Amino acid sequence: MKALSGIAVRAVAAAVPTDIARTQDYEYLTPEERHRFQKATGIASRRIVLDGQCASDLCIAAARNVLDHLDWPPASVGALILITQTGDQPVPATSIVIQEKLGLPQSCVAFDVNLGCSSYPYGLAIIGSMMQSLGISRALLLIGDVSSRVCAKHDKSSWPLFGDAGSATALELDDRAPPIHLDLMSDGSGKDAIIIPGGGLASKRPPPDDGAVQLEAGADGTLRRPDNLILRGADIFSFAISKVPPSIRRAMDAGGRTSSEIDFLVLHQANKMINDTIAKKLGFSAEKVPTSIEHYGNTSSASIPVTLCTNPDLFGETRTVAVSGFGVGLSWGSAVLQLPANSVLACVESNATY
Amino acid sequence: MSIESFIEKFSFAIEVEPAKLDADTDFKSLDIWDSLNTLSVIAMADADFNVALSGQDVESSRTIGDLWQIVEAKSRQS
């Protein structure tokens, strides 16, 4: 895969709701199980949206933060891409609604992309290559999910893992920007590892309405609505520890870098055990692998920007980072890129609906 | 690698005394067994035997000996 040239990241922001769900308060696990869960996953608390708040709202809060920080007039933004699997409505694409809410011009390209945990490297590739080939000078990459709204609260295999968050990354054409090296992968044979089976047309089920939704027992015995998320954690775990380290290595190799030449490795935040294993295999010490999972859980597509924005003090000077996202699809990817000094903004809290 | 070393690594992974386990142990009926142990066992197979076990591999095995056969077969393939 060719490197992406002439694309500079100018700012990264993330937004989370204020409502905190603590592992220690989760009523469907015993106190002992809660302790064990927290130790293994690293998740102490998560942020959950209040009724009515959407992924778009969190992404708009983050987008306003980057626009204000950079002093970019909305009229200067030529492309807006939203990556989410929890859009505001099936049709139209949520990004187009956001174009109007952010006051972006009609000349702004806007569309949604359906990806989850692999969104960050994919998003950089999609928006960066469009900017480069179409000559779009400024663009916003919005990535976020409100996973709490698709998980059943009593589902111990999904509910205590996920937190809600939105993010915004501002990018600009810049001939002096160092190349971004990418590695992007897909494997549809693993589609059942994380799936919302109902609600789409393939399921031949009508969308849920009137509250007359049938609950179905999964292979694990858990009752779920057809539009609830099912997560097979062991399969994701196995996939992540075997497929992700080679992907990161390919992205580093593409730029001729070794792990010692990377300032920080920023991984999707699914589970502490996964990330410890990946970091160890690649020879990254713990202090070079910042985290956010303890505070925000698995923030799905937004986890990489959320992790950056949870640790803004690490980015006071120009940093070369390797990022890797992996999960639902299966889809995974890695990128090695440079973040300019002070381009990572601290996470903001927002319960706003726009 | 022998089944003895696999049982030992298995016991460390799930934090149980090695003496309490043998090849015939029906590991999923152990009191302490839960889904997080599945992850620990997958991580152990990866780290110590360089084998990628799936969730299904663990699910379909009844005894530690059954799982060892899968690990052995997969390590021969790689």
Per CATH, the superfamily of chain A is Thiolase/Chalcone synthase
Strand element count of chain A: 16
**Shape verdict of chain A:** globular
Main beta-sheet strand count, sense and barrel state of chain A: 6 strands, mixed
Please report the total strand number of chain B as a whole number. Answer: 0
List key phrases describing it:
heterodimer; A: 354 residues; alpha/beta; Peroxisomal Thiolase, Chain A, domain 1; six-stranded mixed sheet; four-stranded mixed sheet; 8 helices; B: 78 residues; mainly alpha; Non-ribosomal Peptide Synthetase Peptidyl Carrier Protein, Chain A; 4 helices; globular
How does this structure look, described?
- The complex is a heterodimer of chains A (354) and B (78).
- By secondary structure, chain A is α/β, with parallel strands linked by helices.
- In chain A, 27% of the residues lie in helices and 23% in strands.
- Chain A has eight helices and 16 strands.
- Chain A has helices spanning 31-41, 55-70, 94-101, 119-134, 233-254, 272-282, 293-296, 303-310, and strands spanning 7-16, 20-22, 45-47, 79-83, 109-113, 138-145, 165-173, 181-186, 194-195, 216-217, 223-224, 230-231, 264-267, 319-327, 331-339, 348-349.
- In chain A, helix 5 (233-254) packs parallel to helix 6 (272-282).
- Chain B has 78 residues and is mainly alpha-helical.
- Chain B has helices spanning 3-13, 35-49, 55-60, 64-77.
- At the A-B interface, helix 1 and helix 5 of A face helix 2 and helix 3 of B.
